[in-house]
Amino acid sequence: MLEDRATAVSSPTQWPAAYPKGYAVVDVETTGLARDDRIISAAVYRLDERGEVQDHWYSMVNPERDPGPVWIHGLTSEMLEGAPLFSDIAEEFAARLDGRVLVAHNAVFDWQMIAREYARARREAPVRQRLCTIALSKELGLPLPNFKLESLAAHYGVVQQRAHHALDDARVLAEAFRPSLRAAAAVGVRLPLLECRPLTEWSDRPVPRQPSGGYGGYRSTSWRPSRKRPACPHPNPGRYEDGKRLKQGMRVAFSGDTSVDRELLEDRATEAGLHVASSISRLTSLLVTNDPDSGTSKVAKARQFGTPIVDEAAFGQLLRDVEPADG
């Protein structure tokens, strides 16, 4: 069984030629989980093509704002005051990532935080693909009670010393990724690689100043906090049909990385008279995604309901000529 073979740690003699030639195992700690939150520490373990550690790097980062949940990451304003800004470490960080697949636990989070920081610094991270160790664990059928990093570490006997410290989390993940990679190679598993799209257009919104003293003013937020939008004034005319125009009132949902900041893309859809939906239903007119084979819940539901799917570039073209609503 795949599950049994996934526990193997010996390196197979025949290594899949299609596998990447190097990896950058990354962990970032942040001021929170929302779009406007900042990185406060970053760590990278560089691995060769078979998962052997080559070197590692770590830096704290001054977020120029309240550090957020100190009780989780342990980094106070005093500790971060003398730390470099992200723009100061951007070149070194990029050198660690260059030419490698970014590996992280819940990789979409780490990648999007990194992409936003580079966009703020008016630079681009040299990352073209990412690999999520949660997705790899699922591909291997690992018998984990859940998909937390601590459970993956325990499965391979990796001892975690400082949870939520970027350097130790990256070390733990690197040590757990190596046997996972070898198990995948042994049975010829296709690695769940996804494209990383750097942000080419970004609009930074001001963050409210935090109350001075203590951290009681920290805003607890979700990964994608909902934004209040005015109700779409147009009725839903139904699904988008290939080769035709979008029509005002159509319900449009987005999934995965976009080159234009997601909120800017959503704003443009709203301004064009479309209804931006946060989920997929039978009423959804169109799903916009650059990763139609990613297997996300939105993509899966779109396939189930027969919802049309287009990529970001095609959607941008469609936005230029949206048909007015009836009446």
- Per DSSP, the total helix count is 11
**Shape assignment:** globular
Strand content: 15-25%
Give, in spatial order, the strands making up the sheet with the most strands.
3-2-1-4-5-6
Name the assembly state: single chain
| Fraction in helix | 25-40%
Q: Radius of gyration, Cα only, in angstroms?
A: 21 Å
What does this structure look like?
Helix 6 runs parallel beside helix 8 and helix 7 crosses helix 8. It is built from eleven helices and ten strands. With 327 residues, it is of the alpha/beta class. The chain has a six-stranded mixed β-sheet, with helices on both faces. A four-stranded parallel β-sheet has the order 8-7-9-10, sandwiched between helices.
Task: Briefly characterize the structure.
With 327 residues, the chain is α/β, with parallel strands linked by helices.
List keywords for this structure.
six-stranded mixed β-sheet, 327 residues, four-stranded parallel β-sheet, 11 helices, alpha/beta, 10 strands, globular, disordered N terminus
Produce the secondary structure layout:
Layout: H1 2-5, E1 22-30, E2 39-48, E3 53-60, H2 70-73, H3 77-80, H4 86-97, E4 101-104, H5 107-120, E5 129-132, H6 133-140, H7 149-155, H8 166-187, E6 193-195, E7 251-255, H9 262-271, E8 275-276, E9 286-289, H10 297-305, E10 309-310, H11 312-319
